[in-house]
Amino acid sequence: MSLINSLLNTVLSQAGQEVSRKEFLTMAGRGLAVGVAASTFASCQDKSGGEAAKAATPTTGTPASEVTASTVYTGPGGQQVPSSEAVSPPAKVPAGVDKPIELEAWKSDVDPKSGPTPTPLPPEQRVGYALVGLGHLTLEELLPAFGECKKSRPVALVSGSPEKLKKVAKQYGIKPESCYSYEDYDKLKDNAEVQVIYIVLPNSMHAEYTIRGAQAGKHILCEKPMANSAAECEAMIAACKKANRKLMIAYRIQYEPYNRLVRSMVRENKWGKTKYIQAQNSQSSANPDHWRHKKALAGGGALPDIGLYCLNTSRFLLGSEPTEVFAYSYSTPGNPLFKEVEEAMSWQMRFPGGILVDSITHYNTHDSRFYRVNGEKGWMHLNNAYAYTGQQLQTSHAEGPAKMQNQITISPANQFAAEMDHFSACVLEDKQPHTPGEEGLQDQRIMEAIYQSAREGRPVKLPPVSGTDVFRGPEPKENA
Ligand code: NAD
């Protein structure tokens, strides 16, 4: 039916006639209309690619169409019932794949507007990703998120488990020949479908797999924390530069709509100048054998794994860099979970302009992830700030005698899809990512100062950095 409708549109627009579809069908008879439409379709196909596509795809508003019921179906009582009148309401259908279809509006201004309709690239034009490591993050979040991507698709997998490779490849339509063991990692070089390698391995492996991936000629998206030392981060940046490949660190929060909204309110001093931020990211773990509890693999405990969100997000909100840190760490004596890595880290950061940031991260308390930005005239509190979903934004300010406390709700978005699509856009448009390697290196330097402060029991100064967002690339396009 939709093909016929589209062909009729073409016939009518080419004929330049002021006739409705109903009149046309009545005049010509449905069989004739289909015949005319089919011959137009054939003639469109004869035209060269671009011209034919132009002729077949309306670029301006399409009128409402009505098609008289012409068929019957057998109803629930066995009776013959005429089929419903199928209608295509007016819509704007721009030619470019990146331009959203604009559907007929029906909501009043009283309610929030829905976003534009998605503009996915055809699958074969999307950037191909190889995922390295089939653990929790890859299986639970990243592979499902590709379903919401518009510019990215999974095309290869790397794992030490042949069983996982076989099963996951089947689930996501990845070719068996695009499944690699760690030993075969460097063979990704020869897979032309792979443009990006996404490294989702224990932290200590990020540097090696980034460097080898860049040497294989692929762009690199690397999970946080970028690595276990600033020296490793520098080597990763240098390797990607040398290979002329892009490097992005997967700071999903910087692509998440609620966090981006808070940032814009901070930057425009919505509630006056920001004075201090309180941030917490805590969870509970139970398996001392997991790599997260081995110093050599994880680099540290709660701080690089989850405390990093408090650090990176504060820098992201403010756009400036801390000049000094002061920290305490704690690990319960005798607890095998914290034999090698810290259980908790509490630290304060001093930012330019006297802004103070107070953060705590813990590996041994119930899940709690929030921050509160305290301005001179009000605050913004983001609950579940660092969670995969469920952000809740509350603001408070005074109006006359009243304390106004508002809950702000916006459309959520899959952070992982947003982050991957941003990197794909950078690859397709040859742009620098918003969260490049330099952003990860700066966090690593600050974390090293935090550890030093906790060890030495004194504040540690950081080299002053002037300017705003100096370690970040251009802003991601909204709804990219
Ligand atoms: P995980 O333990 O669930 O998975 C790790 C994967 O690495 C597994 O498939 C494992 O087989 C593989 N691996 C290869 N060599 C290994 C080794 N020597 N020891 C252990 N595993 C080895 O871990 P995860 O939670 O998926 O975390 C992976 C990375 O992703 C980490 O860097 C972590 O910080 C990051 N991460 C990021 C987010 C986020 O929201 N951005 C969330 C979770 C994890």
Summary of the model, kept short:
The protein has 480 residues and is an alpha/beta fold.
Which ligands occur here?
nicotinamide-adenine-dinucleotide
Beta-strand proportion: 15-25%
**Helical/strand content category:** alpha/beta
Q: Count of helical segments?
A: 13
CATH architecture of the largest domain: 2-Layer Sandwich
Distance between the termini: 32 Å
Strand line-up of the largest beta sheet:
21-20-19-18-14-17-16-15-22
Largest sheet: 9 strands, mixed
Describe this structure in words.
β18 (364-375) and β19 (378-383) form a beta hairpin. This protein is α/β, with parallel strands linked by helices. The protein is built from 13 helices and 22 strands. α11 packs across α13 (437-456). It folds into three domains: 2-103, no CATH class; 128-249, Rossmann fold, CATH 3.40.50.720; 253-414 and 431-461, 2-Layer Sandwich (Dihydrodipicolinate Reductase, domain 2). Bound molecules: nicotinamide-adenine-dinucleotide (NAD).
Give me the secondary-structure topology.
Layout: H1 2-15, H2 21-28, H3 30-46, H4 49-56, E1 61-62, E2 65-66, E3 72-74, E4 80-82, E5 87-88, E6 91-92, E7 102-103, E8 127-132, H5 136-145, E9 152-158, H6 162-172, E10 179-180, E11 196-199, H7 206-215, E12 219-222, H8 230-242, E13 247-249, H9 257-267, E14 274-284, H10 295-298, H11 302-318, E15 324-330, E16 344-351, E17 355-362, E18 364-375, E19 378-383, E20 392-399, E21 402-408, H12 415-429, H13 437-456, E22 460-461
Parallel strand pairs: 8-9, 8-11, 9-10, 11-12, 12-13, 14-17
Antiparallel strand pairs: 1-6, 2-5, 3-4, 6-7, 14-18, 15-16, 15-22, 16-17, 18-19, 19-20, 20-21
Helix pairs in contact: 1-3, 2-3, 3-4, 7-8, 8-13, 9-11, 11-13
Residues 133-137, 160, 200-203, 223-224, 250, 252, 291, 297, 305 line the site of nicotinamide-adenine-dinucleotide.
